[in-house]
Amino acid sequence: MKAPALEARQGMEIRNIRWDRLAQQAATGRIGFAAITTVLVLFGVMRLVQATPYGLGLNGDSFYYITGAETLALGLGFGRLSGGGDFIPTTHYPPSYSATMAGLQLLGVDKLDSARLIAVVSFVVLISVVAMMLRREAGSNIPAFVTSAILVTSPVMLNLYAWVMSEALYLALAFTALYLLWKSETQGRTLLVLAGAILSGLALLTRYVGIALAATGLVLIVLANTSTRRKLAEASLLLGLGALPMLGWIVRNAQLTGNLANRNVLWHPVGLEHLEQLALHVLDWFVPAQILARRLPLTGLIPLLGLMVGVVLLVLWRAGGLSSRFRREGLPTLLALHISLYLAALAISLTLFDPSTQVDDRILSPVYVATMMVAGLGVWEVWGGRGALARSAVLAGLAGFLLVNGLVQSRRVASYGRYGLGNAAPSVGNSETVAAVKELPSVPIATNGMARLYFWADRYTYSIPWRIDLDTGAERAAYQVDLQQLRDRLCPKGGALVLFEPENLLPEQASLTDLTQGLSLFGQYQDGEIYFCDDPGTGS
Q: In terms of Cα–Cα distance, which of 425, 482, 483, 415 is closest to 451?
């Protein structure tokens, strides 16, 4: 008969063996990978649903995406209806996001629910693909879990997916394409290149800056340790499937409007303001940069960002192993390429096309995801390259980072869930001006709140004219013509001018005096005013 002490010791050893097996399965096994990744993804989806009880946030861009989906589903093409019911083609925004929503609407999904479904599915795909890429690179589940935990607790990611915007779909397409192209270089499967090329083309038709994704794929193919013949074949496949859809889109725009993408080519190089925005947002991913900005001049954030990046790279390099991972087919190489080429494409866009673009978390979203992936690999490198003290420091730092991430995200979830986002907020729906518009007969309407009246009053409207060209900063030559055209559209048909918060019209928009010339105030409300023409029979 065994002594009680011996039995207890043997039982403890058996339990330790079981815990070791579970830990090993979680760290390297496929079942543990699938289980923990699923839990993390479901947590992220739950937070998104909690943050959007009134639906995803709606802004001006959301208006064009949703109306574009609606007209596509109706078979009219990609565009919107004017206040007079005329179809206006859209060229400023690429079509894939709206086309995806339109496909869901044809299956019976409500137009706003379709956007929410895309956001949820895109989030699941992105987190899953990111986790698979990191597991494949590291040969361990740990960096995959670390990065997934960072992303699902991230206030940046919550803000990206809580709005009806194309970034959610783009991220899913772009990182899935990167994964397939990266995987094809080591497995030699043409089908992977084919699928990656198709997704690259769709990503480019989701966001124009997707050109950086195609460029990353091409560089990856060139750097691959394969034959010249295979490189030429894969490059042709990527360029063909990635560029042909965009070429077709450009031809369509030129035929319909004479403009390739509603953008003028002008020279306005990247300035200090853009660099300050970049530094502020990137630093804010890791430290409370908003607090730093109050104590330092914004220009001081730029060298601070450079110093932080340099210190991180030095620590990772000294941890050992990072240098060997920067090989031709390594994931760090791929991520570094994509970040560099994306920032280069953004700089070109700011310099030649869109100087008014804000360099914020939305615009930097692909850089954010790639940076967090590098962070996950960095944690793994330091963890494996140092002793118990360094591991404890890494674990404490990671726990603190996740805690802060989660707390900031929780505050945003509570705020978004209480008030709603943008035009989805109940306060917008309860507007006195919106209620008054609902009572108006079916007449043409011009307004500075096209999105509000579309979402809450179900009315297509005309936009008020813009006095200033946003690209050049000069007064538009056609400004007076546009004002007269607006009166011609409204007055003969008894139309109305609806202005939300007229005292806060943008300086670049038509002035209140110019807009209301020849019009009389019909109703004044807490948040707006409605005007009708003095002489409804003419446009003067």
A: 425
How far apart CA 186 and CA 526 sit, in angstroms, is 64
Cβ neighbours of 319 (radius 10 Å): 19
> What are the backbone dihedrals phi and psi of residue 486, each rounded to the nearest 5 degrees, phi first?
-65, -45
Amino acid 392 reads: S
Angle at which helix 190-204 crosses helix 167-187, to 10 degrees, equals 160
The enclosing H or E element of 311 equals helix 298-319
As a residue count, the chain comes to 540
Angle at 257 between CA 255 and CA 262, to 5 degrees: 120
Among 470, 472, 484, 469, which residue's Cα sits nearest to residue 514? 484
DSSP category for residue 290: H
Note the pLDDT tens digit of each residue in 108-146.
Answer: 999 999 999 999 999 999 999 999 999 999 888 999 999
Per DSSP bridges, beta strands 528-533 and 519-525 are antiparallel
Supply the angle between the helices 211-223 and 331-352 in degrees, to the nearest 10: 140
**Among all chains, which residue has been given the structure tokens 């990671």?**
398
The kind and range of the H/E element at 463 are strand 462-463
Q: What is the distance between the alpha carbons of residues 471 and 478, in angstroms, rounded to a whole number? A: 15
Q: Is the dihedral of CA 27, 409, 101, 199 positive or negative?
A: negative
Output phi, psi for 509, to 5 deg: -85, 170
Nearest to 372 by CA among 143, 532, 174: 143
Handedness of CA 269, 272, 277, 282 (dihedral sign): positive
Contact (CB, 8 A) for 205 and 241: no
* Least confident span in 9-23, 122-136, 455-469: 9-23
Provide the 8-state DSSP code for 475: B
Q: Hey, what are 457's tokens? A: 């009053």
Please give the Cα distance from 352 to 475 (Å, whole number): 20
Q: What share of the chain is helix, strand, coil (3-state, %, to 5)?
A: 65, 5, 25
CA distances 487 to 296, 311, 452, 475, 530, Å, are 50, 61, 22, 20, 14
In the predicted structure, residue 276 carries a pLDDT above the cut 90:
no
The amino acid at 279: A
pTM: 0.90
- Please, what sign has the CA dihedral across residues 152, 156, 162, 167? negative
How far is the C-alpha of 178 from the C-alpha of 214, rounded, in Å? 9
- What is the rounded CA–CA span in Å between residue 194 and residue 138? 26
Q: Which residues contact 291 (CB under 8 A, 6 or more apart)?
A: none
